[in-house]
Amino acid sequence: MNTRENKTNQQKIADNLNISRTTVSRCFTNHTGVNPETRALVFSEAEKIGYNYLKSRTGKKVSQKTIGVIICTDYENMHEDHELSPGFHLMPGISEFALINDIVVDINIISPGFTSTSPEFEKLIKKNRKTWNGVLLIYPFKTDIIKALKENFPCVSLVEQFGDQTIDCVDVDHHKGLSTIINKLIEKGHKRIGYLTRSYAVQACWSYRRYSAFTDQLIRKSIPLNEADVVNVYPDRLLSPQDSIKEAIKQTKDGVTAWVCAADHVAYDLIKHLEKAGIKVPKDVSVVGFDGISSPLKNHKLSTIKIPHISIGYNATKRLYEIIKNPYDKTQLISIKGEYFEGNTL
Hints:
Elements: H1 3-17, H2 21-28, H3 36-49, E1 65-72, H4 75-80, H5 86-100, E2 103-110, H6 119-128, E3 134-138, H7 143-150, E4 155-157, E5 168-172, H8 174-187, E6 193-196, H9 205-220, E7 230-231, H10 241-254, E8 258-261, H11 264-276, E9 286-288, E10 304-306, H12 309-325, E11 333-336, E12 339-341
Parallel strand pairs: 1-2, 1-3, 3-4, 4-5, 5-11, 6-7, 6-8, 8-9
Antiparallel strand pairs: 10-12
C-alpha cells in the first residue's frame, strides 16, 4: 500500500469519526497519547471500510507480535450502535495491553452462520496462518470453528465456550453477579422470580451459565422455581423473540413479580412490551438484566450487572501473550467480578 493510499484511507476514517487524521495515525502506531475508547473506534472503523492498516506499517520489529481478534457476529450488529456492542467495549482493554507490549492487533468479523468449511473462514485461516501469533475470540463460536482455529493458533476466548474445556477463557463472574441480583430481589420481598432469555444463532453459553447461577441462588435461598416461569432456556421449548415476550407477559399476569433477564437487550425489550400491555415497571413487576449497556428507553435505566469489559479485554490479551510465550501452560478460566448498578426497574 503506497503512502498516498494510506493517507487517503486514514483521512476517510478520520472524517467518518469526526477526528483528526493525526489521531487516526497515532492509533495505528500505538501512540500513548490516544485514549482506549478512541483507539477502539478507529480499529472498528478501519475494519468497516476494509482498510488493512497492517500493510501500512513500516520498520516492524522482528520480535513484534501480531494477534488476530475475531468477533462472531452479524456485521451490522457490530456497527449499528457501538454503545450496545460488547465487542466494541472489549477493544479498549485489548488495545491497552497491545500498546504496552508493542503488539499489532488485527480485527476481523465472521458471521455466526460460518462453519469451518465456509470459503470465507478458510480464506481467513490461510491468509493469517503465518502472520498471527495468536487469536482472541469474542462471542460464542461454533465448536468446529474453535477446533479449526486451535489447530492453527494459540487461542483465548472472551466468553466461555461450552463443549471445549481446553480453551483458555476470560469472562465475567456470572455466579457472583447473579448472587447479587437475587439478593436484591429477595430484599424487595420477591418470592416468585422468572428467568427470560432468547435463542441465538450460536448456542449462548453465557445465557446457560447465568441460568445455572440463577437456579443455584434460588435453591440456596429456598425460593421455589416454577418451570413455566423459565422462558427460552430448554432447547426443546425455544420460542421466537415475540412469543417469548408474550409468554413472559402471560406469566407476569399469573403472578411472577420479578424477571431476571439473561442480557440487558432482552430486559429492555421486555420492559417496552410489558408497559404496552399495561403492566408498569417497577410498580407491578421488577426487571433486572446483566451487561450494563446504555439504556435505549427514555424513562428506564435497568438494574443490572455491569460487565468489566476493559478488564476482561486487557486480561484476555495478557493471557494470550503468556500462552504465546509458553504454549505448554495449563488451561485457565479467569472470572472477573462485575459491578452492580441500581437502576429504576427494581
